[in-house]
Amino acid sequence: MNKRIVVVTGGKRGIGAAVVDAFLAQGSLVIALDRDFSPGLVRSEASQDLYTYRGDVSQPIEVQAFTEVLQEFGRVDVLVNNAGIGIFKPLEDLEIDEWNYVLNTNLRGPFLMTKFLLPLLRKGQNPSIINIASTRAFQSEPNTESYSASKGGVVALTHSLAVSLSRYGIRVNCISPGWIEANPDAELTNEDHKQHLVGRVGVPSDIAHACVYLASPEAGFITGTNLTIDGGMTVKMIYV
Ligand SMILES: NC(=O)c1ccc[n+]([C@@H]2O[C@H](COP(=O)([O-])OP(=O)(O)OC[C@H]3O[C@@H](n4cnc5c(N)ncnc54)[C@H](O)[C@@H]3O)[C@@H](O)[C@H]2O)c1
Question: Minimal CA–CA distance to 46: which of 15, 70, 24?
């Protein structure tokens, strides 16, 4: 197998789907996992180089089963931990089960994926892991506790894994997207665009291209870091 073997979680829609497309476009073989795909390992009709698999990153048994399915590929070169969800509610209304659901998906998910895929990543060529965090790891609006905490955890998990997995030659980085509009039908106002230093809201390919770069040999000196991709929103100083 000469092609790079790339695993993307949450690959069915949004940023994850753009990450899948970007790696396919540069000639990789991609295995996309999402809880909304059809059951089993399915070779896509859209591309011979794309496989889909239904699984839930928050569930150890499902991640372990996915790992067993991946054995036929022999190795994994790139893991993009993208699957994530958000529940935004006032603290008084946020149920403990909801807190657990967000943390288990956004933080335990990347941990489980990395833990179970590690033997395959250790066999990878120029192996690397890219975790999708969020600018909400560093800044908050009200009522975002579970999501912000999970993404802060992803940033910390990233540098921790980078240190631990360096002994296997595995680089680990994260990307913190700002506002990425994945819905092409979304009605965005001029104000939405203009508040960004670059004059527009982000699109999924803004994140996908960065994933391809961070996974490339040209990024071989980059590990343990966070790349903020937010059109400049988080460097703006605002006094109300
Ligand atoms: N869109 C943004 O503005 C933005 C900003 C910052 C960070 N992010 C992060 O980027 C990632 C992708 O966001 P998006 O906007 O594309 O979201 P999205 O909701 O459009 O897509 C998320 C995908 O992940 C899948 N998924 C969710 N939970 C899963 C689970 N437990 N197991 C397997 N698959 C699961 C969903 O089915 C869906 O296909 C998330 O981690 C999100 O937190 C997004």
Answer: 24
**What pLDDT sits at residue 184?**
86
Multiple choice CATH, 5-235, 1.10.3300.10, 3.40.50.720, 3.90.226.10, 2.30.42.10: 3.40.50.720
Distance CA 192, CA 2 (A): 43
| Contact by Cβ (8 Å): 76, 51 | no
- Domain range annotation of the chain: 5-235
Q: How far is the CA of 58 from the centre of ligand 1 (A)?
A: 13
Ligand 1 neighbours, Cβ below 6 Å, are 9-10, 12-16, 34-36, 56-58, 82-85, 105, 109, 132, 134, 177, 179-180, 182
Read off the pLDDT of residues 67-94 as tens digits, 9 standing for 90 and up. Answer: 999 999 999 999 999 999 999 999 999 9
Report field, pTM of the whole predicted structure over 0.90:
yes
CA of 132 to the centre of ligand 1 (A): 9
Residue 122 is inside which H or E element, if any? Answer: helix 109-122
